[in-house]
Structures are given as structure tokens and as C-alpha cells.
Amino acid sequence: xxxxxxxxxxxxxxxxxxWLSTDAYWALGRPLDKQQAAIANSLNFGAYxxxxxxxxAYARVVTDLATFAWLCDVYVDSATRGAGLxxxxxxxxxxxLAPYGLRRVLLATADAHGxxxxxxxEPLTEPSKWMAxxxx
Length: 136
Known about the structure:
Elements: E1 3-5, H1 13-23, H2 32-40, E2 43-48, E3 55-63, E4 68-76, H3 85-97, E5 104-106, H4 113-117
Parallel strand pairs: 4-5
Antiparallel strand pairs: 1-2, 2-3, 3-4
């Protein structure tokens, strides 16, 4: 059983940066300064080995804590995958956000639809209403 915490002081920034910038298809090559800014301006979740305190997973939420949240940068260390930690992490995020009464929590994934569907995430019912501004 891993300990999940939102304490920003516990985030191993160097480890998270390495995971995301070298192994996460959505963040390959992300510069350290961008990752540091993302962490500083988000609600962060870390999952930690209870014996060693070593961080084993990470998730980030961009939110106003009133109406909207975007779940992103969900990552489980490759040595820890397959034991349900990702599912536990997403459950912790959902449970943490529940009291705020948010209208919507969004995410994007290329390959983990089944993980998120367990928590009620589903494809957009009207994707034609959504737009994106890509600045890079």
C-alpha cells in the first residue's frame, strides 16, 4: 500500500521531470523549468513507498477548485506498474476533488481509457463544442 499525498514539499521534482520528459509520450523533452512551473502552479499528487519514502507515482491537477479541473501528467514508475497504483492514484484525485462540487474534470489519454472509465470518465458527448488553442 502506497501513501498518497498532496504535500508539494514531498514532490521529487527531479524524478517527476525525468519520468515525464523521457518516458511520457505527452511530455517528451519538456524542459525542467517548465516542469517546475507546472508543479508550482498546480495541485500535485505523489504516491510514496511507505518504507522508503521514495516517490513511485505522480499526478497533477490544474483547477480553480470551484467549477473545473484538468487531470494531467499521471505517471507510475515503470518498476511499480501493474500493481494498481495508477488506479489508487486516480481514486485519490477523484476523492480529493469531490468536496469542491466541480462541474467537470477533464483529461486526455491515448492509451488508458479503461483505467479512467472505472471512475466515470467517458468520451465527450459533444466534442464539437470544445476548441483548443495551440500556442506551440
